[in-house]
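Residues and backbone
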Amino acid sequence: MTPTQDDLHSESGATAPRRKTWRSPLKREIALALLLKLVLLMGIKTMFFSHPIGKQEAAQRLGAMIDGGRAPATPASLQLTDKTEQK
């Protein structure tokens, strides 16, 4: 009896588990889903979190959101001095 190709691979042990690992459709689907999620997360990170902003810029953006975009985001002390100078 001559050894078959499967018998030769099963003796070495190194190539047989590697081949059978990706034969399962469930394992391939899970790996593909994880890879897709990783790509999407990296895309979202680069789009929305590309660079950190300074505290001053963050305060200005927060002030603009609180005011609803109606007034410029300046500190209250500056707004009072501007109003008194206009009179």
